Amino acid sequence: MGIVIKNVHLLDEEKQIRRDVYIEGNRITGIDSMPEGFTADETIDGTHRLLMPGLVNAHTHAYMSVFRNYADDLPFAEWLFEKIDPLEGRMTPEQAYWGNLLSFMEMIRTGTTCFVDMQMFPRMAVKACADSGMRALITRGLVGSDRHDEGGIRRLNEAFDEMEYAKSEPDAPVTFALGPHAIYTCGEDMLRYVAEIAKEKDLMINIHLSETQQEYESCLKEHGATPVRYLKNLGMLDVPVILAHCVYLAEEDYEILQQPGVSVVTNPASNMKLGNGFAPVTRMLQKGINVCLGTDGASSNNALNMFRELGMLTLTQKGAEKDSLVMKAEETLQVAVENGYKAIRLEEQAGRVAEGCLADLILLDQEAPNFQPEHNWKAALVYSSTGYEVTDTIVNGKILMRDRELTTIDEERVRFEIAQAVKDF
């Protein structure tokens, strides 16, 4: 399929310059110069539009949108173990499918083109990605005491079955990683076993880490090490790994997190809402750590709007550090785009509007009143945007939203199915 975006402003260029961007298949194949043999199946008028790479939501639980606004203003342990865990246990695969699509509706509308997910029903996530066109790195959440734990091994085998299933859905731009849930739900031997398998099969690992003070202090007491050091000792940082949260860190942790292949995902809204504090993002970035941005699930955020998260990240860091010069707009956007693609090993292929890059792109309405006057577009995106200035979303060369109308998801059907699902709560 050939797509041309005419007369559009690119984020990194002067606002008076307008470009024509050509897309063939899933790649950008030309800027200004029409590729030889190009045929435009779709023409998008970019007048008064800003074109930029889509945002990467580097940590979420897409199926959990059915729990939005259900368990709020609670302590972390009560929220997780007394409210959310019991609901998850009753959830059906079909409910998870519609929960994923509801999340995708919000993400597509607010400029997210790729997300990293920890799922209970990865097969339903793959199906939802195939039906909608969303790009994802998917992990099946794993728990268990050791490599002989019957339930833990069953979940691990399910994860590999689901990786095979994904091959039967060629329209789903998804990859997989192994997803041990956390150090407090996986025993030491289970974590070591997952690390061994990941290394053997060249798979990434995606895990929650050091999210709460209790988790941090319990790890010190039980293992004589910080959560970061504990994972390193188990060999879990010997493969590319995505660590969600890292709110509590010791001085020695920063050096460990600097090693290649390690990425940290900060989730400002979720961490604040659950009373877990502020991750030391400024310090991590100063140390050269690859920090990405995520929303976490809709049950703890309660939104999947990455532009909302951009503003929260920069403002909370400036406030926590008492320094208006930290987390400047350009750096914040890098965290949400380039660093996110680096975390999933796509930094050479995505995150830029350039020939040869994956066509994961969004267009925003430059005439939105909150974007006026046009002084500094990066500042506008971080400090002024609501996310709903996005007019068009393209993922893997496929238009998922055109002029604010979703093209691959039946929104009315999704709303109906979600309304049916929550009757079981």
Could you characterize what this model shows?
The chain has 425 residues and is an alpha/beta fold. The protein has 15 helices and 17 strands. The protein has helices at 76-90, 93-109, 122-132, 150-166, 188-201, 213-223, 227-233, 251-257, 268-273, 281-286, 306-321, 329-336, 338-343, 377-384, 411-421, and strands at residues 2-10, 19-24, 27-31, 42-45, 49-53, 55-60, 112-119, 135-142, 174-180, 205-209, 241-245, 262-266, 290-293, 361-365, 390-395, 398-402, 405-406. It starts with a strand and ends with a helix.
Question: What's the structural blueprint in terms of helices and strands?
Answer:
Layout: E1 2-10, E2 19-24, E3 27-31, E4 42-45, E5 49-53, E6 55-60, H1 76-90, H2 93-109, E7 112-119, H3 122-132, E8 135-142, H4 150-166, E9 174-180, H5 188-201, E10 205-209, H6 213-223, H7 227-233, E11 241-245, H8 251-257, E12 262-266, H9 268-273, H10 281-286, E13 290-293, H11 306-321, H12 329-336, H13 338-343, E14 361-365, H14 377-384, E15 390-395, E16 398-402, E17 405-406, H15 411-421
Parallel strand pairs: 1-4, 1-5, 6-7, 7-8, 8-9, 10-11, 11-12, 12-13
Antiparallel strand pairs: 1-2, 2-3, 5-14, 14-15, 15-16, 16-17
Helix pairs in contact: 2-3, 2-15, 3-4, 11-12, 11-14, 12-14
CATH C-level of the largest domain: Alpha Beta
Fourth-level CATH superfamily of the largest domain: Metal-dependent hydrolases
* Average pLDDT rating: 95
Low-confidence stretches: none
Rg, nearest Å: 21 Å
